[in-house]
Amino acid sequence: MAMTETFRTPFTVKFGPWLFLILMACLPLVLPGRFWLHIFSLTMIYAIFVLGQNVVTGWAGMLTLGQAAFVGMGAYASVLLTMQAGLSWPLAFLASGVICAACGAALALPCLRVKADFLSLVTIAFNQIFFMVANNWMELTRGPMGIPGVPSMQILGWKARSSSDQFWLILGVAAILFFLVARLMHGQLGRTMKMIRDDEVAAGALGVNVTGYKVLAFAIGCGVCGLGGSLYGHYMRFVSPDMFKLEESLLIMQMAILGGLASMPGCALGAFLMIMIPEALRSSEPWLITIRPGVAGATLVALMIWRPNGLLGFGQMPRSIRRLLRLEKEARP
After folding, report:
1. Which residue from 33, 154, 164, 282 has the least number of CB within 10 angstroms?
2. % pLDDT > 70, the chain
3. Contacts of 137 (CB under 8 A, 6+ apart)
């Protein structure tokens, strides 16, 4: 029996998410200081980023390496709407998701004209374009100086002032987003996306609107990243172009592959492993910090060889990713 199947008992499927949510909500009561509470808050925000990445890559099977651009777009949109347009944070939060969803759908149209590896190159170029625009549009983004003094998150007069308040608010938003995406991906929409991912030609032959579903996947995934970006900007209370470089897109992709493609728990697990373990190493021996990138790379290589669908991945890895990682040999005549 596969390792992931041993955990899919009726009890864990029905009550596991609720128990996990209750345990997470109790963390501010038991953690000794604000540092680890900050790390857990950051982990949940990154889990939202990975969730958006997984919609596009895990369920729809499209390899994108530009999700940090949509995170930054959502962060800047929310910050500018609250600081310059005077909108409340909930409205700016929703607006950032809508803006990023619309931009993601617009980007999908030229992206779908190319296949496999070239799709990732288009999204990499988009990430670089976003970084250059944000870094040079001084009147709007203040360029490399960034935007300081971002207001804290506030809902109906209640303001998240303390670390515990911010943690609970982020946890609530993350739980809602995971619930909504799970409802979509475990329904007809998710099954159709998996069919397109596994065999696009067969899906088209059965009458599935392949282009429409791929555009929808881009819109949902980028919209989720935009919502996470709004949380990120108001939680950090500062945004700058350096926070949304290509390296961030690669980190989000690594989290998605490590945790498991097309797996809701894998989104949280990948973010947890890639955020918590480095911070634990940071407080230990200094030499462990220097080898951290090499250890992370070696772990991903081993994972791609022996478990290419991730630690908690239940589906097949998209063919484009296997080909990009050189795990699938070319067909011989």
Report:
1. 33
2. 84
3. 143
Q: Hunting for tokens 């709007």 — which residue is that? A: 140
**Taking a C-beta distance cutoff of 8 angstroms, is the pair 207, 213 a contact?**
no
Using 70 as the pLDDT threshold, list the residues of the chain that sit under it: 1-15, 116, 282-293, 295-296, 314-333
The DSSP string of 158-212 is EE--SHHHHHHHHHHHHHHHHHHHHHHHTSHHHHHHHHHHH-HHHHHHTT--HHH
pLDDT tens per residue across span 98-128: 999 999 999 998 888 877 678 888 999 999 9
State the Cα–Cα distance between residues 274 and 257, nearest whole angstrom. Answer: 11
- Domains by residue range for the chain, with CATH: 11-24+35-324 (1.10.3470)
Amino acid, res. 91? L
The span from the CA of 160 to the CA of 207, in Å, is 49
Share above pLDDT 90 across residues of the chain, in percent, rounded to a whole number: 58
Q: Give helix then strand counts, H and E, for the chain.
A: 16, 4
State the virtual CA torsion across 227, 241, 55, 329 in degrees, nearest 10. Answer: -170
The token pair at 92 is 């700016």
Instruction: Name the packing angle between helices 117-136 and 67-83 (round to 10°).
Output: 30
The encoded tokens of residue 285 equal 């021996």
